[in-house]
Amino acid sequence: MNEPTGAGARLRKDSRIGIIGGGCGGVHLAHLLKQRGFAHVTVLEREHRIGGKACSPIHRGFPHEMGACYIPPHYSEFIRLMARYGVGRLTAPKVYERSVFTTALGGGLREHHLASFVQGTYDALARVDKMPRGGNLMRLLALLGAIRRYHRLRRRLLGQGYHPLARRPSTAAMAELALPFMDMVERHRLHAMLPYFWLASSGQGYGVLETIPTLYALLWNQPALVSAFVLTRLGLSRRPVVQMVDVGTQTLFERIVEEDGLDVRLGVTVRSVARPASGPVTVTAETPEGPAEFVFDDIVVATDFRASLQFLGPDANETELFQAQTASTFVTNLIETPRWAAGALKAYVIDALTPGATFSVAGVRDIHFSWPDAQSDRCAAVAYQYVDRPPDAALLADLDARLRPEMARLGFADVTLVQRRQWSYFPRFTADGVARGLPWEVFERQGRNRTWYAGSSACFESLNDVMNYNLLLMQTFAEA
Fold it and tell me: Which domains does the chain have, with CATH numbers?
């Protein structure tokens, strides 16, 4: 799979460009093209709304984030667009004393506050000689040393270029990037950072540390994010590690479509894409008005790669590339309950984020987390279910059946389900695919068969990575 890139292919301003997928990546790329002067861009979106995993339904007068929600300080492109389009403001989630982490150890549930969770993790690591024994000073020195080694490791394996996926690393580096991240923790003595990695990586649904390839832990845990978390935990910074959009993340993408006047077709299910050796690309689809054909000079696949195999008519290389990806299942449930369990602000169930988990519920976020003054006779919350394998009908049915019993075990009684979203989440290559260089193969294939690739399947499941990858595409391939 080392064929050359699209032989100098470029996105030309006079081209008719079809973007399949109106999620964050598709809408943002259409925006960038419009700003560059591309006048013939059409977005085809299967759902009857735009935004994809930016999903912010309004319930009882407040937006509830059921997909993308947290905006760290280094999300510069997202923050720039919020200012440009006048979309709400960023607000720090309310931090109560009772941020509860629930672990299932020996078959029983145990609750920890955030501080006691971190302290308990350090104590457990010290008992098995993974951390130096001693007080807070020794822990601080161990943490600072681990952060320095981590940054050095990331720089060595991913480099310092504009985007880590734009240039294929050495064969030796790819072999290291394919290793389970917990192996790298052991090799490079990063144990002092484990509480952070459990919360920032597994807690966001980015795989369990024992199995996830190192590449993805390094892509997400950028130096700016790590530094912000550590400085805040040490009391050296008052800047929030993460913030939320007070009017809902989805609002930004809706505003971009409206104010840019983007050509977005909703409710369009793509059935097939014909890409002949010469001539235009033809997309056959079902629309709310009936069957239709769309004719383009170039298409952008900004949807899940594996799902696109059903309509793309892929060549042999695309088939091999797309089938090498896997994903996790994330189900987000907007619920109501008479009261919030144990007076806690939010609950992470650490058991759900480990291999062989007995729980599927991985976290619960109360409405007061982002709206502390919300008043209601019932508590509204978003409950996350996480399974570290791709969704299928049997798995989704199982998660449906498990929701209420597991919520009851966590102390939430009389749960009413208001809305559910089922995500094929965090598309990624297997360890073998990383070792073979497939994440970089995507960029190397850009423009072949008049086809371009964007969205989380092309890079990483975060707003920041999706937007930066689009900026990379524009910088590298778009006509000035």
Answer: 17-52+249-324+430-477 (3.50.50.60), 58-93+326-428 (3.30.70.1990), 130-233 (1.10.405.20)
